[in-house]
Amino acid sequence: MEQVPHHELRMLARSLSAAGDDRIMRVVATVDALAKRGAADRIVAPLRPRLAELRPPRPLRFIRLLFLPLDPLIVPAARWRPGSATVPRTALGPIAATVRTALGPVAGTIDAAIAGRSVGDMEIVEEAGGMLWPRAGAVLATAPALAGWADTGLPAATAAGLCRAVGAVLLAAVPLRGLAAEAEAGVTLESGPVHAVLAEAATGGSEALAMAVAVLLAWRPQAAGLLPHGASVLGPDGPALMRLAAGQATEVLLERLEAQGGTESLAAAGRLDDAGTEVRRAATLLEALDEAGPPERRRRLAAIRQRLEQSCRSRFSSGLENGVAAPLKAMGPSPAQEELADVENTARGLRQLESAARKLGGGAFYDQLLHDAVAAVRASPADGALGLADKVRLVEILASSDEADALLEEEAPAYQTQSVDPRLLSHAAPQSPRAP
Amino acid sequence: MSKPILSLPLVQSYHPTTFLARGVAVPFTTPVLAGTRARQADRGGTELIVPNPSGGRGVYILAWGDLHALCQPTVHDRRLNEKAAALTAVVPSSIRAVSRQVAAEGLAGPASRDAAIGAVEAARRDLLTANFHLLMLLVKQDGRGTAAPGGADLAQRARQAVVQVAARLGQSADAVAASLEALAEMFGCIGVPGETGECRIPRLLRTLRRVRGEVSAWRGERGEGSSTLCAETVVAAADLTLLCAEHTLADVLALTTDITALLRTWQAAPGKVAGVATRPEWLLDGWEQICALWDDAAGHAGRLSALVEMAQLVPVLPNEIAEWGGKVVDSGTIANYRRRVLLNEDWRTGTAVYDLIARNERLRAKAP
Questions:
Q1: Quick one: which of B123, B32, B131 has its CA closest to B357?
Q2: In this structure, are residues A187 and B341 in contact, taking their beta carbons and an 8 Å threshold?
Q3: Do B300 and A189 touch (CB under 8 A)?
Q4: Cβ–Cβ gap B299/A344 under 8 Å
């Protein structure tokens, strides 16, 4: 691959830009399987916005694991500026190679732990990451000479500073991810633990602090409100340092969203419920950043919000058509439980996406589409694919339990006042009669 | 999902001193109703004890009909609420019976429906088996030889034993047979010595022991933080519950060492026997759902979320337990947890609500 001339690589990359999803997935899988990617990375680079949407399963490799905690900060080298609290993609290779060499046999242990795993294997990521990140942080904190830096095309003088900042964030990665995971699980983030972790990152300098803040806000935007309180733990200049870091982190996150596909990939990405989570997170972030921003920032936020709203609408309507309406139309009179479960899961995912997207606007749009979908479910014939319980459940998901209750009362008036043979309610049970 | 709260009562503190006052866990699927318990109200009728949905301290105590003031319950929960409101006795077995009845209607999904129908059938089999083994114990203790099933004269020896014991108790044989059937209703979920199958309570104890072990191991692999506090809370509550449940289970099984005496006590004071026989069930009430939460959780993030929720749901142990087994309750760890772990605004609300309902339906299938 290293031997392929540049112009051929450019032509290959250009032809892939118009390729279908399947072909792109195959190409990415092939590149991911290479022991040494080298120039192959240039083929993948223009595809990154598409990959963000397609989310192919990415094999968990040493370099990918190392930089997972810094993922929101990684930018193309062309967009990187020294001290911007971001990490240029071309620097990942030299940094990872340096860490690998310094770790010695531990690197082999980590390789063995992640062999055959993908980035989605969170348990392995946390386990192997727990082994790797603090050690890598300690290595990078000493700003070692980075072999291969010349190939990055970046100024030599920037290497040491970047190394230190990345190292400090990696040193704080385990507790930082722990806080975010607990918050995701329902525990309230509190100022004390948040600032303790940020203080650890701040030992790598103001850029490292900004990086850690950006990472925290990307994972848990609700933390924005905590940043001004308790910053004195960083020292006498703590509040000022924190203001600076928060400003820089805001810029990193805004630029990430403003990049090509940076906003659209959120609603378009992965499963519908994942998209709902991403959109809710982004909407919360936009809200947090909007609170006290200058007019210019507000204009940028409004543009991002508009793009996000549009992509949510698009994902919602295609999801409703392809995941609910079409499968219901195609369903035979005795569908398998799995077929119905798929439709229900899609409907749940759509509601998650919709309730997150409503924060951005478009309420009437969603109301209308959901109303139409409910009408289609209600109109499905008694001898069709859906039993009464199935209809009630779908209406409950797509509309509300009030509406589902009304349907139940309408179609089975005696139901509310007497026991009903369960077989009356669903035809999924073998040899059961149809609902009235 | 929630309607505006217009007429909710104030949040109240919740320190039940008896198991009746603690109430019975109701397996609602609406996320904000997680951990809700039902009990008989002081002024008649039944009421619901709903943990503060904000995750803060205290509970709402609502009349059954007021559930809508708090949230918009799922259709399954409305149905369950109506059925449970009509109960004359709010005890674990009655809530379980109506829960299975409602789940069997399919409103919590086909998996819950199939599990509920299967559980009703399994309970019926357990009851018949318990009845048979109580009778066999009676035969054995009456000195009529070992009661191996399938013996040619087994039915005859059983009839003779019943007649003999009936004469001793001053009852008719039919009355003794009816008493054995009534006792089997209680022993059906516990099991009778000699049974080879595992009944509901011993199975739940085994599950709780396993989950306790897994949570403890999970905690051991991690450092400090709210999640480890959650794990410690679950382990502490599980230890206390296991200790008390095993003790009370032994008491119940001890009743079967003399079936004639058991029948005599039953004849004189059935409430006394029922009181002892249902203690393990009261103690373990609510743990089935908690264990199912753990078993349903996948991966690190799933288990973390499950633990936070499990720690919220661990049942309070009333002081009445001291009368049951001489165990003084130290619920300091649990109270400490509730003070220290605050839940955020996404707790049981937000976009995850649809996934949580689906998850709760899966739990209904795992713990029918």
A1: B32
A2: yes
A3: no
A4: no
Q: Which of A352, A353, A422 sits opposite B117 (nearest CB)?
A: A422
Q: Best interface-test mutation with A: which of B30, B77, B79, B105 has the largest number of A CBs within 10 A?
A: B105
Task: List CB contacts (< 8 A) between A312 and chain B.
Answer: none
3-state secondary structure of B299: helix
Q: What is the rounded distance in angstroms from the CA atom of residue B91 to the CA atom of residue B24?
A: 6
Of B78, B304, B354, the CB nearest to A348: B354
Question: Which range, A196-210, B54-68, B312-326, B327-341, is most confident?
Answer: A196-210
pLDDT for the residue B190: 94
Chain B closest-CA separation from residue A193 CA (Å) = 9
In this structure, what DSSP letter does residue A322 have?
I
Distance from CA of B17 to the nearest CA of A (A): 29
CA atoms of B241 and B284, how far apart (whole Å): 7
Q: Which residue has the tokens 């009333």?
A: B318
Answer whether B305 touches A (CB < 8 Å). yes
Whether the ipTM is more than 0.85: the answer is: yes
Share of chain B above pLDDT 90, in %: 55
In this prediction, residue A229 has a pLDDT band, given cuts at 50, 70 and 90, of: confident
Residues contacting residue A124 through CB under 8 Å, at least 6 positions apart: A60, A113, A114, A117
Q: Of A393, A409, A425, A432, which to mutate for an interface test with B (greatest number of B Cβ within 10 Å)? A: A393
Range in A153-167, B29-43, B140-154 the model is least confident about: B140-154
**Residue B307 sits at the chain A interface (C-beta within 8 Å):** yes
- Does B337 touch chain A if contact means CB atoms closer than 8 Å? no
Choose the closest CB to B355 out of A193, A340, A348.
Answer: A348
Question: Residues of B with CB below 8 A from A351's CB?
Answer: 354
For the entire predicted model, the pTM comes to 0.83
Interface contacts (A, B; CB < 8 Å): 127
pLDDT tens by residue, B147-162: 555 555 777 888 888 8
C-alpha B155/C-alpha B268 separation (Å) is: 28
Q: What is the pLDDT of residue B151?
A: 58
Tens-digit pLDDT profile for residues A70-126: 999 999 999 999 999 999 999 999 999 999 999 999 999 999 999 999 988 888 999
Distance from C-alpha of B220 to C-alpha of B341, rounded to nearest angstrom: 19
3-state helix/strand/coil string of A115-176? CCCECCCHHHHHHHHHHHHHHHHHHHHCCCCCCCHHHHCCCHHHHHHHHHHHHHHHHCHHHH
Beta strand A74-75 with A87-88 is: parallel
What are the Cα distances from residue B136, in Å, to B141, B170, B177, B182, B251? 9, 21, 12, 16, 20
B80: contact with A, CB 8 A cutoff: no
DSSP conformation class of B12: B
pLDDT of residue B3: 45
Q: Tokens standing for B84? A: 């449970």
How many CB atoms are closer than 10 A to CB B88? Answer: 7
Which residue of A181, A183, A352 is in closest CB contact with B351? A352
User: At CA B186, angle to CA B184 and CA B191, rounded to 5?
Assistant: 70
Structure tokens at A348: 């749940």
pLDDT confidence bin for B209, thresholds 50/70/90: very high
